Amino acid sequence: MKPIARAEGQLCVFIMKTPGSVLLLLGLGLFAGAAESEDIDLLELKYLRSQVQDFKSRLQASEKKTRDLENEIKNLQENRGGKKVVFSVSLEKDALYEHTGPFKIGKTLVYKQVFINIGDAFNSITGFFTAPVRGVYDFSFSVLGYGGSTRVGAHLRRNGQNLVMAYATLDRGDINASNGVSVLLEEGDKVDVYLPAEHRILDNYHHHSTFRGHLLFQM
Prior knowledge:
Layout: E1 4-8, E2 11-15, H1 19-80, E3 86-90, E4 98-100, E5 107-108, E6 113-118, E7 129-130, E8 135-146, E9 152-158, E10 161-168, E11 174-185, E12 190-195, E13 201-203, E14 210-218
Antiparallel strand pairs: 1-2, 3-6, 3-14, 4-13, 5-12, 7-12, 8-11, 8-14, 9-10, 9-12
């Protein structure tokens, strides 16, 4: 039995001239080919899995961007066609020279002159503004007084809690002070201008002591 050498790539195989040995080597070749094929299939499967995962990630990111855009469009539409709230008032209507205060106990100022009250959120009888919707509102107010021993000033309050104060002092002569704030209000929150005890302000037909506010946007 004479061996025959054959080259398979870089591998040199000796084949014995017997039927059994030839079948054995053929079987080994088939086994090696099958193993190599399985390795290729495994690599292809891993690649496909990575592609699917990448596609899922990009799809999720795209869906998030779509949701964000839809929410932004919804907010813009709500604000454009949403609740309109604005008011502007003055302490006196046509008085020549009218003082308010001083009082032993502080009180909410009641404004007699209503310039505008869109949304009817300001109550000219009680002096309170009631937020009709949850949102960010902007308020400002001013007070006029006369210098001397009596202090001139007032608080802007939310639900009875002081937010900001307008205050001024002067030995004599007319003095004016103002302040304002933007604030988040819940539906039903109340805002007023409060004259503290032992303070005095004045107004006339020129409307120096005023209170105004409006809804910037809903939340």
